[in-house]
Specification:
1 helix; globular; single chain; 89 residues
Length: 89
């Protein structure tokens, strides 16, 4: 049986329309192993002023590649996002 993954999605206001995301939204998607882990990532995102439209999903999100630069991140990429209260939230 496949283990349930959760996805925390958000738009990075700071990195949108810049670099690889020129003329696009910079969408971050954090892959989580449990709902509890997704809640931690979500609360950390809420504590940051550069993240908006934060959502927890149980299905893998797909975005229009013409208007969104999408980055999937894991604990290996950004372990601090998975630490409760890391950004003061």
């Amino acid at each position: 049986m496949k283990e349930q993954k959760y996805y925390v999605t958000m738009t990075d206001k700071f990195m949108s329309d810049w670099g690889h995301a020129k003329d696009m939204n910079n969408k971050l998607v954090f892959v989580c192993d449990s709902y509890h882990e997704a809640l931690i990532v979500s609360l950390n995102a809420e504590a940051r002023s550069d993240q908006k439209y934060i959502n927890i999903r149980s299905s893998k999100p797909y975005y229009n590649q013409q208007t969104n630069y999408v980055q999937f991140k894991t604990k290996d990429d950004y372990p601090s996002w998975y630490v409760p209260g890391y950004f003061g939230g």
